[in-house]
Every structure is written in structure tokens, then in C-alpha cells.
Design goal:
By secondary structure, the protein is α+β, with helices and mostly antiparallel strands. The chain folds into 3 domains: 198 residues, Aldehyde ferredoxin oxidoreductase, N-terminal domain (Aldehyde Ferredoxin Oxidoreductase,  A, domain 1); 195 residues, Aldehyde Ferredoxin Oxidoreductase Protein, subunit A, domain 2 (Orthogonal Bundle), CATH 1.10.569.10; 145 residues, Aldehyde Ferredoxin Oxidoreductase Protein, subunit A, domain 3 (Orthogonal Bundle). 42% of the residues lie in helices and 15% in strands. Strand 10 and strand 11 form a beta hairpin. Helix 18 packs across helix 20 and helix 18 packs parallel to helix 24.
Amino acid sequence: MLTKVLHVDLTRYRYWVEDRRDLFEEWIGGTGVAVKLMRENMDPKVDAFDEESTIVFAVGPLNAAYPLASKTVAMFKSPLTGNLGESHAGGRTSTSIANAGYGAIVIRGKSKKPVYIVIDNDRVYFRDARVLWGIEDSLIVARIIAENEGGRGTRSVMRIGGAGERLVRYACVTTETYRHFGRLGLGAVLGSKKVKAIVVMGRGSRKIKDRKAYREIYDEIFKLATESDAMKKYHLLGTAVNVKPLNEKKGLPVKNLKATSFEYAEELSGEKMAEIIGRRVACSHCPVACIHIATLRMPYENEPYFYKTLMLSYDYEPIYALGTMLGMKSREDFLKVLYKVEAYALDAMTTGVCLAWATEALERGIISEKETIVKLEFGNSDAYAEAVKYIIHQPNEFYEVLAQGVEKAAEVYGGKEFALAFGGNEMPGYHTGYAAHIGYSIGLRHSHLDNAGYSLDQKIDSYPKPEELVERLMKEEQWRQILSSLVVCFFARGIYKPDVVCRALKPVGIEIDEDGLKKMGEKIYFEKLRLKKDMGFDASKLRVPDRIFETETPHGKLDRSYMERALRYFAEVVEKV
């Protein structure tokens, strides 16, 4: 069982380790432990960019032990929403942290100069990163650090790009080459602390209490992972397989959700993208390999007949946000914009929603080309690629505001009715019905992955009372607190069912039954909700954009009164917590 917590103080360039068996025995790991460490180490009222603002990286008891237990939880104060930030990433990070012997890493303070942190098992080094500060391409930063530090295989490099340095509120953190702590602005928090990267090298291994029982349950999980139809789907086409079905059902957001079907959807589909796959990549301890890497051939500037080949990871969400939401007509146009977003290390979803709002605002005359500098038009990839650059460099007040998210932009310039955000977090890629939009609103991260309302919409024929739907979504989110405390990939939720989880925990030293698991999920959920409230969350102020009620879903147009009744009920639940 992983019970050690590494504390890193950037202000004093110090570090120390605590054994927190008490914490991990009560809260499992991952999300559960991260919530408690945030509570212990940070005043919830501090600003996201304050010196005392804290970041927690946490793994769980299944990481570096079982297939598909491949995620790391990052928890922080979000500069985008001003509330709780939580993001999960795959890659090698969780294995590296676990093999270094830690269940969690707590980072606080602020460095006086740019640094990158190296965690090498029980030693921590603060490397001078002044020469790296100003390199905006996160891919280049990773190559330089990898050459300096070595340690391939068990090494993970988490780093920011130009977006994090410039404190863009939706800057992400890239880990390895193709995975991200994407949503809610972790990259900006690291940028405010003058941290360019965090390198973790784990040279140990997990200790198993009962090797025979471990082998049996490991083999069972591996077999389920490699033979299940759902996992095969993720391997073959990944989540990009969703593009065509959502388009056919009229649940695909197009051009700032002015429509839900798109004549060029086939060009952006998983099937079409598969024609230019360069390779597939897997996270550590994952046999599925759902990470799809597309090749994009681009000419060098002023060099005829010379081309560079770029390798870009994609899945459904970037295709939605930077593809259909921006009216892209080809996969190449989509990938050109994705390349800029990846290089600067921006969250793809928020960037796409911000640019879609700006395009419609320009169409309506709410803003002019004086603000946007380039003429933003749906389908114009060159203009969007330039606009991404302006979000980073912020040459005028408009882009300074847009770098704070679509809610802020609409507050300053107008157009709030078509500014697509829920709880301050930009809309995910599903306009499938009530469950999706209520799910975004009441989810504690305001994410589609909190409670999978979009999935429920596609399975349901008729909706229950709003209160019943809220209860159902909350129950699903409570179970997902267990998955994100273990920490396993949500794609594997059909494999890691309660009975399997209980049997997997036993060989690593944790005895718990199914009823105990469910109670633990509920306990973590409400503890996280309390922390969110202490950070200023007020459920009575949740806003649903007007556009949601104007555009058809697979269930027809949504009734505002149903949505409002659901949110009132959720606000009553929150009030009692």
C-alpha cells in the first residue's frame, strides 16, 4: 500500500516526506486523498495564483499493479472557474510516482526564478529552468529535459508550454508526448509558480501482499481488457468513433452549437482519421492502446518541396472542439489548429469553445476585426491558428479577456446567451439531452466524465422526474469517486465493477466489501462537495446557456422548466451539505 506523501516547498526549495497511512487507509488514494490533502495544506479562499495555492498529484492502490490502472489525479484551485480544479492524465506518470514510492505529491509556494523539479525516488532536485522559460513549444521542452535527465522507461515529464507561462486560464500540462492534465488550468497554476516541468523517475516496484491471489485477479482483468468489445472499439478507432453516430442522431455540436449535424462530419470521423494514423500508443500498464496518433504533413515556410511530418494525438473531444465546433471541412484543417493548441499546451475543449463564441460574436457585430485582428470564420483554419497564437501573446485587451475563458469574454463583450460554459467550464462535445447538460452543471468538475449524462441520454427513451434524474447522476458520480481514487481509467469502468475492485484490492493489502466501497464513494463525493463550497461554489447561481434550448437534440428541443427544476433540486441538496 502506497502511504508516503512527498511535500515540495518552492519558496524555500525544500522537501520532506511523511508517512500518512492514516490518510490512505481512510480515503483510499487518488481523488479521496487529494481532497483531504488540499484541505490540510491550503486555505480554500486563496487565489489560484497565490503563493499558498497548492497542487496535489495523487495515485491509488491499483497504480503500477493492475491493467488499466493508468491515471494520475491532479487537484488544485482552478484559475478558470475560481473553484476546485481536478484533472486526470494517463501516460507513465502514475507508474513513475508509484514506483518512486509515493501515494501523493504536494507542491506549494512560488519559486523566485523558473525551475523544473526532478523527483528521483527519495531525492528531489530544483533545476534552473531560466534557459527553458520562453520556449513556448511544450514538445521541444520535453526533448531538452529528457536529454538532460535521462531515465527513460520509468521517467515521466510533465511540462507547460507558452500558455502556462502566460497564465492563460485554460493552459494544460502535457505529460509524455500525448497525454494531458487538460481541463481547468493546471498549466497556468504551475506557470504562476515559475515551474516549467516536473520530472518523476521511479526506480522501485510495488509490493504485493498475496502474490497468488494477485496473479489470479490480474489475469482476469487482463483477459476482460483484451477480449471485451468495448476495449476493442477503443483500440481500433478510439473515442473518435463517436463522431458519425452523434452526427446521425443530431447530438453533435456544430459551429458554436448552432446546429447538431454537419455535412463534413464524415471527413472528421474516426474512420476517416484512421486512414492517416501513424501509430497507436498505450498508457503504462494498459494493454488497449487507445491513443491514436495522426500524421500531418506541412510545408516549411519559404521552402518549396520541403515538408515536416507532425505526429498529433486526437480523440473525440478535440475533434468536436477544434473540428465541428469551428466548422472544419477536412481532417487536415482540424489537425493544423490542433497542432498549435498542442504546441502551446492549451486545453483543446476550452480553446475551441472560446474561438467558436468569438466567431459568432464577430458574425453578430458584438465585436469587430479590431478585436479579433484576423477575420474569424467557421472553417477557416489559418485564421484560427493565428487566433490561438494571439490567445498566448495577448496583443490587445480582447485576447487578454479571451485567455480567461468564454464566461469572462461574454461578461465583458456580451453574447452570454451563446457562451457555452457550465459552472465556468466550457461545454464538452455532447448535445444529447437533459442528462448531458444537467450532468455538466451538477458534476463537481463540470465535466462530461463526472457522471456520463451523455451516455444516459443515448440509452433512455423517456426521462424520469428531474429530481430522480439528478439523483441518478449523483449516484454515478459517487461511484466514479472510487474509480478516480484507485486510480483507474474511466474507459475501464465496465471491467472494474465493485466485485472486481474488492478482489483486486485484497492482494495489495486493503480489505473492503462492496457495500463499504459504495459508502466510501458517497463519503468522498460529499467531502469534495464541501471543499468546493468552501472555495465559493454556489449551486443556486448555476447558469445554463440559452443556446442549449434553441438547438435540437436527439430528444427534441429541451424544456427550460425541466432543467431549472433539476438545478433547483441540486441546489437544495448542496445547501444541506
